[in-house]
């Protein structure tokens, strides 16, 4: 949990920030320690802990702990919530597909994740790219307007190729997949639910229902792209579970 926004304008002292970080990192046990225990663990006074609670806008330590606990997401709980909220994506995908995709992400530690998409799909690709960066992954983002050299010059450093294509037949994406098919690069694709070229070439083909398959210009209201984001976030929830279990 990042506390920078939480403490903005609160004028906390360095000691108070240290105590707050301790409470956040030990949110499940600090209530048992109590004010005296937390103060002792941080080599400070009980008045410092109480002053922190008041500066944060709470009446006391117990209320501070309770409010912070509601802000901190437990990864295992997040996975449960994600499953409840994304039932639609399981109409065309098994949970195993997401677990396999999560394992691919987990195994990619030092090498590059290459994210590629065209048109409206590139908006989703940008989100995926930024999400991967905050997860500490090395990433490259490209679209058909970029030089082919962006891909060619990074083949040796690449471990995973992620792409989004509503039709599953976007020629620019198919061309890139043909370029890497002889390389030991895992492919994760997000496409429509019908049989398509891109899904066939992917190691993990995540399929999303497209209600307007002939709407090439995406003119109609369509939940295809929101569902891609839902599917991606469920994949991240599976990845978080792997990370938690490995600790």
Mean pLDDT: 89
Q: Which class of the largest domain in CATH terms?
A: Alpha Beta
**Uncertain residue segments:** none
Q: In CATH, what is the homologous superfamily of the largest domain?
A: Glucose-6-phosphate isomerase like protein, domain 1
Query: The CATH topology of the largest domain is what?
Result: Rossmann fold
Order of adjacent strands in the largest pleated sheet: 2-1-3-4-5
Span of the ends, CA to CA: 17 Å
Q: Which class of secondary structure composition applies to the elements? A: alpha/beta
CATH architectural label of the largest domain:
3-Layer(aba) Sandwich
Major beta-sheet overview: 5 strands, parallel
Describe the global form. Answer: elongated
Structurally, the number of domains stands at 2
Helix content range: 40-55%
Number of distinct helices: 12
What is the H/E order? HHHHHHHEHEHEHEHEH
The count of DSSP E runs of length 2 or more, i.e. the number of strands, is 5
Radius of gyration: 23 Å
GO molecular function: carbohydrate derivative binding; DNA binding; DNA-binding transcription factor activity
GO biological process, one term: carbohydrate derivative metabolic process
Pfam families: HTH_6 (PF01418), SIS (PF01380)
Keywords: DNA-binding, Transcription, Transcription regulation
Structure overview:
The chain has a five-stranded parallel β-sheet, with helices on both faces. By secondary structure, it is of the alpha/beta class. The protein has two domains: 4-71, Winged helix-like DNA-binding domain superfamily/Winged helix DNA-binding domain (Arc Repressor Mutant, subunit A), CATH 1.10.10; 75-245, Glucose-6-phosphate isomerase like protein, domain 1 (Rossmann fold). The protein has helices at 4-7, 14-25, 30-41, 46-55, 61-71, 75-85, 95-107, 121-134, 149-152, 171-180, 197-201, 224-245, and strands at 112-117, 138-142, 158-165, 186-192, 204-208. The two termini are 17 Å apart. The protein has twelve helices and five strands. Keywords: DNA-binding, Transcription, Transcription regulation. This is RpiR family transcriptional regulator. It comes from Loigolactobacillus coryniformis subsp. torquens DSM 20004 = KCTC 3535. InterPro entries: Homeodomain-like_sf, HTH_RpiR, RpiR-like, RpiR-like_SIS, SIS_dom, SIS_dom_sf, WH-like_DNA-bd_sf. It holds the Pfam family SIS.
